[in-house]
Amino acid sequence: MSVRIEPGSDTQDGSNSRIPKKWYLWIETTKKEGRAGYGAAAIAKGDTGDIVMATRNLYTESALGARLEILRIILNRIAPFGNYKIWCRDTTKKWEKIWNNRTRVPWKLKPVMEDIQDQKEKGNHMVFYNFGHPLVKEVKKAAQAATSTNISFSWP
User: Fold this and answer.
1) Which helix (DSSP H) or strand (DSSP E) does residue 127 occupy?
2) What value does the mean pLDDT take over residues 52-62?
3) How far apart are CA 108 and CA 73, in angstroms?
4) Residue 122's domain is classified under what CATH number?
5) What percent of the chain stands above pLDDT 90?
6) Which secondary-structure segment (H or E) carries 115?
7) For residue 111, is it within any domain?
8) Is residue 14 part of a domain?
9) pLDDT tens track for 28-37
10) Residue 102 pLDDT
């Protein structure tokens, strides 16, 4: 009796063990005085070692707009990997309020908020924690660099 392994899968049951199911997310927005836009950076590391990164200089009217934009960008970058559970560092509960739709947004930002909520409705989960990690400092540096220069970088 032979065991059939589906194309593109790594295991006998047809699942792909290399697709991350759990992601760790570090996300930051900053604004420098005298600059027009907000700098935003996010790094997501999958439990299989995959890394997704996005850095942008966002020209929005508010810090909330910058937070919504960078969260939507990183969630859309992770979406091709399938359903996921994200562990997000959140010391001030600002990301938790956005994810749980407990933030009032102006009408201009409604489409961005709806995109974030669509990710939640697809069965994706986000858990929040408040402890340090070495990548926190690196994400903050990337966000500050995005604030001072017109940078837009995503990987992969």
Assistant:
1) strand 125-129
2) 89
3) 17
4) 3.30.420.10
5) 26
6) helix 110-121
7) yes
8) no
9) 899 888 777 8
10) 92
